Amino acid sequence: MTKTAAQTGIPPSPSGAKSIAPGLILASLGAIAFSGKAIIVKLAYRYGVDAITLIMLRMLFALPLFAVMAWWAGRGKPALTFRDWLGVIGLGFSGYYLASFLDFAALAYISASFERLILYLNPTLVLLVFGHELWTGGGGKGGGAAAWGAFLVFLSAVSYAGYLVYSGEFVKRLGSLRLVGLATTVACVLCILQFVLTRPMSVAFEVAPEVIWLSVLNATLCTAVPVLMVMMAIERIGPAVAAQTGMIGPLSTILMGVVILGEPFTPWIAAGTVLVIAGIFVFTRKGR
After folding, report:
1. What is the total count of domains within the chain?
2. How do residues 211-228 score in pLDDT, each as one tens digit?
3. Could you tell me if residue 131 is inside a domain?
4. Is the residue at 18 inside a domain?
5. What is the reported pTM?
6. Residue 81 lies in a domain
7. Considering the domain boundaries, does residue 90 fall inside one?
8. pLDDT digits over 113-134, tens only?
């Protein structure tokens, strides 16, 4: 019987550490890029754009990238059945359309730092930071707005959690890259359709040029690119290690919020960040 390094007392070889380094780097960069989305959204809101228009622009520019991703991953694979399409549409709605829309809407009311903490934080621990944000109105619109924004982010997290729970079967049948490409393509179409049904088309041409460039950056660097990075990281180091590496996400958002947006780094945010990292670390250790 082959003994593990822990049983023999022999440390793992340097080559083993080197073999997971590319995966760790990809997972870290993917988490940082994902987290940049909140910063870009907050910057775009400074130009008077609303959530529906902003998410439409993001998904409009991301649509070709995800469509190509779905086509590439589906080459030579069997065509999707009716049941497969139903699953893809449902997962695209919950995991990428609804979760993204609620998150974008929430960022109009709360700070980027608080938004990221809610997404990563157990609801019982978020009360520490939430109490201070509610009292001071961290999004700049008062305590009531902060409460509404926090609730929207929480619903966004619930919606995405539903996607993660029910996507397992389809990942096995379709492959992770193909499923992500198809589900995000569905989400892009839904976001564009939502805009067409609720806004006059002229609104899309009235936004500031800065909003267009921020949306292009959001669609590429903070949406399509990190999706590929995380998928490649999971292939190399597995989902558990990739998830642990993703803990860098809220830290990078808070840092970018302070440096780029000028958001205050209060003791409440610091305490909430510590609780986030501790909670995720304990949870992932137990799940091993």
Report:
1. 1
2. 999 999 999 999 888 888
3. yes
4. no
5. 0.72
6. yes
7. yes
8. 777 777 765 444 444 644 445 5
